[in-house]
Structures are given as C-alpha cells and as structure tokens.
Amino acid sequence: MRFEHLDNLRAILMMLGIVLHSAAVFSTHEYWLVSYERTSIYFDWLISTIHTFRMPLFFMIAGFFALMLLQRYKTRKFITNRTNRIVVPFISAFLLLNPFQNLLMSMYYQQLEAPKNYFIEYSISHLWFLVNLMGYCILLWLGIMVMRSLRIKVKILRLPKQAFLAAVLIFPIFNISVLAAGNLGVHIYEDLVLLGQPVTFMYYLAFFLFGAVIFLYKPWVELIETNRFIYLSLTIAALLVMGSLFEMIPAEPEGIFLKIGREYLETISILLICLFLWSFFARLLKASSKVMKYLSEASYTVYLFHHILVVAFVILINLNGINAHPAILFTCLVALVFISSLAIHQFVIMRVSRLRFMFNGR
Predict the structure, then answer these.
(1) Cα–Cα dist 217/128, whole Å
(2) Which residues are 192's β-sheet partners?
(3) Distance (Å, rounded) from C-alpha 339 to C-alpha 353?
(4) Do residues 198 and 192 touch, judged by C-beta distance below 8 A?
(5) Sequential DSSP letters for 184-217
(6) Is 157 helix (H, G, I), strand (E, B) or coil?
(7) Phi (first) and psi of residue 157, to 5 degrees
(8) What is the dihedral of CA 81, 280, 170, 237, to 10 degrees?
C-alpha cells in the first residue's frame, strides 16, 4: 500500500517549522534565538497551538513508516535507508549550516570573544528531531530483532476496532510512568549532549511507537481515515473536559492524583487532536497532486535551511531598523523564507547530485 497522503501530511508538518520559528521572533516570551522589538501575545497563542500537535503527529507518522520499512526491507536495506535519509542530512546540516547560523548570531550579539560556549549551546538547534528519530529507529529495530530471535512474527493483524479505543485510553500511562520516574529521582530533566532532556525523548517516543502499532492493525488505519468526525467530537469533548479541569486544578497541583489526572487528560487530548488531523488530512490529501508531491519532496530541504534563513532575515530587519506591525512583518518573513528555501531546493540542491544526497539522502 502507498500512503502518499501521509507523506504530504509529514511535509506540511515540517514546513510548519517556518511558521513556528517566524512566530517565535515576535513572541512576548523572548526565548528564541533572535527577536523583534515589537511583540504580540497572539504569536504566543500561535506557537502554543502548533506545538500541541506538530511534533507528536510527526513522530506518530514517522513510527508508522519506520515499521512499514522494516516489514518491507531486510535489515541491511533498512539501516542503509535510515542512514541516508536521517544521519547524512543531519551531519550535513550540523557541520555546514548550523556553524554559519551560530556565527551570524555571534556577530550580531557581539559575542565573538567567547564563541566556543555559544557554538556548543546552539550546535543542534532545529536538528534535535533528527537525533530523536535516529534513536527511535534504533530502538524499533532492536525490538524487532529481539522478537524475530524469539521467533515472534511481526505481521499486520486484524484486531477489533474496539481495541483501538482501549489503546487510546491507556496511551497516557506511558507518559505518566516517565514523570513518576522523575519524581522518584531518575534524572529525566537534565540536558544530555545531543539528546537534550530524556523526558522529551521519552515523551515523543510514545507517539512514535503508537504510530508503529497503528501500522500493525489494518482496521485501525481504516478507522482513523474514515471517521474523522468521530475524532473531532472526541477531541472537542476531551478539550472541554481538560479546559474545565484546568480551571479547577492549578498549574502545579500538589496532590498526586490531581497531577496524574491533569497529565492524563492533557496527553489523551493531544493524541486525539493528532488522530483527528490524521483523519482529516487523509481525506483532504487523498487525491494525487503534483503540487503536493513537489512540496513533499522539497520539505526536507525547506526544513533544514529555513532556520538559518529566519535568523538571517530577522538580523537584516533589525540592523536596518525596519519598523512595521508584527503581523505584517511575520507574513512577509514566512513568505520570504518559504520562497527562498524552495529556491535553494530547486536551483541548488536538486541540480547537484552530491548536495541532493547530503541534504535529502537521495
């Protein structure tokens, strides 16, 4: 089976990075790499909304495709495919793009007197998800190898659709267990070299594995892609319950049961939102489109290059003292970065075979 609509959805999620990081420039939190002096709380809302579903859904789709590749290819071909598509672009961007981005930032903030610390702090930047993806694929491959050594066949099953609801309901338990381990003294909030915080790695691992499980059970795929209004209603219900609960529960509840309840509802709401978006776009993107096929092929280049382009354009805006409404600048920034990154893909990456391999793994 081909799942072009999932390829297209994955491309949309990657390209949303342009919107996310452009919005971060105008955030009132001032936490991003470069910022504009005029900010707006509406960009905080936009960032929060995109954060809610973007990476969970991306890793869910990644898990779906990873297990599909493991089923389709032998071990060597799977490793070669994942190395070419994940490791090679990561190394290329890590060595060629990020240092230049950090140099721009160092010069802009006049921190050239201590470039080492600055370079180390922002060395990974937007490539963190590729590091996580490498780790998830390795764990999935090891798990499948163990099951095969035990002569446990990994095959597509036809579990009843009712089992899907059970899987959704127990899904948050994984995340709750990770947080419980942290409360018991396990160091899940300390930053590790390349990996970031273990709690983040484990959080997205749950969505990756859930996507892999969806691939195994064909009725679940059919259920997701044919009943979007069911998931819409479930999502709305979950959000209403979560919203009313959050009004009663403080952001840092003291009771253990309140903490668990808050975490459970928040995680299951995010999962339902992801399932609804999967269902919605399965219908919307089902028809083959040359435009979406092109954007899907270009999405990797767009993601790898958009970050440095946002940084560079914002530095130019600030240095030239351009004063405009944040909404206008945001719109122009998104359009400018999108067009520029597509141009890099079309006129540079795709025309040089070595660059195509370095930044697309093909």
Answers:
(1) 30
(2) 196
(3) 22
(4) yes
(5) TT---SS-BTTTB-HHHHHHHHHHHHHHHHHHHB
(6) strand
(7) -110, 165
(8) 160
Provide the H-helix boundaries in 217-289.
Answer: 218-226, 228-248, 256-284
Q: Is 298:346 a contact under the CB 8 Å cutoff?
A: yes
Structure tokens of 217?
Answer: 């059970």
Distance of CA 190 to the CA centre of its chain: 21
Average pLDDT of the chain, as a whole number: 84
β partners of residue 220: none
> Which amino acid appears at position 92 of this protein?
S
In terms of Cβ atoms closer than 10 Å to its own Cβ (0-12, 13-18, 19+), residue 212 is buried
DSSP bridge partners of 157: 217
Interatomic CA distance for residues 186 and 188, integer angstroms:
6
Nearest to residue 324, comparing CAs of 47, 36, 34, 46?
36
Q: What is the pLDDT of residues 281-298, one digit of tens each?
A: 888 877 778 888 899 999
* Distance (Å, whole) CA 262 – CA 246: 7
Burial track 252-283 (b if 16+ CB lie within 10 A, e otherwise): eeeeeeebbbbbbbbbbbbbbbbbbbbbbbbe
In angstroms, the CA 198 to CA 189 distance is 6
Task: Summarize pLDDT for 208-264 with one digit per residue, the tens.
Answer: 999 999 988 877 888 888 766 666 767 776 666 666 555 555 555 556 777 777 788
DSSP string for residues in 32-101: SSS--SS--HHHHHHHHHHHHHHHHHHHHHHHHHHHHHHHHS-HHHHHHHHIIIIIHHHHHHHHHTHHHH
